[in-house]
Amino acid sequence: MTMYKEYNTNQLSLELNLAYDIPMNHEVRLISLFVDSIPNHVLLEEKSHTGRPAFHPAML
């Protein structure tokens, strides 16, 4: 029995175009502004005391 999952290193890779420019009037900019306006303490106020530590909302 192997200790690690078997994987294939010959997988396809997807190229990301980081120079992609989102237009100023696109709705995703409004969503981004809304999400950024939520105070961190609102998102972090209820924590579980069991299980793994939570990720910081900025990391999501």
UniProtKB/TrEMBL annotation:
Name of this protein: Transposase
